[in-house]
Structures
1.
Amino acid sequence: MTPATVVELGRVAIEVTLLISMPIFLAALVTGLVVSIFQAATQINEMTLTFVPKLVAMFLTLVLAGPWMLTVITDYMRRLYESIPGLIG
């Protein structure tokens, strides 16, 4: 295994990780922004008001995007396992 191969495997692993985590992070970001604007407008500073909507949005995103995320990680793992003979020999 050459250093270029190791770097390529690492790069693809990071890309897949970012691709899979992006929907959940975006849901939390958008929800946090909306709740922050609401808190600034109403001057309500309750910690559960920021936590619970983010948790619900992340759960809904996981339910909706979960099958796609599972497909992406399964395809990556299948490609990785299939490339093992080429990486060794």
2.
Amino acid sequence: MRDQLNTALKEAMKSQEKRRTATLRLINAAIKDRDIAARSTSDDGVSDTEILEIMAKMIKQRRESITTYEEAGRLELAQQEREEIEIIEGFMPKQLGEDETRAAVDEVLKELECSGLKDMGRAMGALKERYAGQMDFSKASKVVKELLG
């Protein structure tokens, strides 16, 4: 994953794509921050799964910013955030649709033999482990509550 991001950054710099270059640098900076924080526990830095989590968080932050910018009438900044989301999503695995998410949640709940809301934490942990970067976990959480509640 790191190599893919670094290669894309070099290509963006060569082709002078300013937005793409800036966005890829932001991703690398976020990964480096997490690497530094993880140094005390491991020498290899963060895993690909953690990189996907970082990028998913970046997308979520940008979606929140879009709402804020649009409410403030700053449409050019909202557009910039949309462009950054598009760039980041290019490195993410295919996102599961609503039906696929529901099926995945159902499978995990049956597999873990979840019977009530007390099992929600275990279920969400298993989903995050298996579907990192592929699933919107806020939507998955709603499905888990619906099926367990």
3.
Amino acid sequence: MLYLLAQWLHFAGLANLIRYQSFRAGAALLTALTIGLIIGPRFILMLRSKQGKGQPIREDGPKTHLAKRGTPTMGGLMILISLVVSMLLWMDLKDPFVWACLAVTGGFGIIGFLDDYDKVTKRSHKGVSGKVRLLMEFAVAGVAAYIIVSHISTNLYVPFLSKRYIPLGFLYYPFAAFVMVGAGNAVNLTDGLDGLATMPVIIAAGAFAIIAYLTGRVDYATYLGIPHVPHAGELAILCAGIMGAGLGFLWFNAPPAAVFMGDTGSLALGGALGAIAVAAHAEIVLAIVGGLFVLEAASVIIQVFWFKRTGRRIFRMAPIHHHFEQKGWAESTVVIRFWIVSIVLALLGLSTLKLR
């Protein structure tokens, strides 16, 4: 909105600052952070009054989690409000990537909200049927994939190799939708401890802010040997908004959490990262930067597969963060160590920009 206004003013005077994506990225971060901090206290009180007993806690989970009964969920709404307002204020609303990413973020957020609402009202941790939820997610991701792929190639670029890619053709559409759905659910599975998913999302968004900005600049993309995607730099502003909204939420989600983000937030944030990765042609890099999310999702898949085959478990409990809790690690220990892993993986993902 402000970009279009500045454009109408021909970027005269102070409006010239809005021309620069780096300035708008910083402004988006601060805007989302400020909104989150302002609305947080009243929003949490509202959630607590509406939900009563808060998010249902699994009886078969770590016993330390029983103390969290009564903590409200759906805090992801705070994140979405902060992020969407920031996006609409600072991003170029004529850019199709903006609307594709907004569709995934908002669409996945609505699906997560329905799941959270079902859990709270029925006092069950099961929520909406997994098949129904996946069907809705793929429908949203399919629309976003169509919008994005209409403006980029259908090549899958391989990191660490300069100008090497796999031409997927029509298969790129379902692949792009799978990346978004997979990212959304991977972040959702990670969101099991206070602050565990929030900070890795912030770290991944920071890494992709750099990747998107460089990908959108033809000079940097040519120098680094990475695919150039016109207008992808606009996604750096979205990444900055995710960071700001995440930091604002983390203020209240820090242990002991006053609110949980729920599926409303985790699905939306994961889907947004997936959409950004597709638009920036960095799908494989997302698996590196978001390696923690991949590990969490893989631990669940492996656990279920092995249990059905043998009747035994590989991990004491899945997702894997619960395995370490069951081994005696304190919740704060698991969270901070997983944050460290996220930082290392983000740096490794950024190294793919130069190591080619």
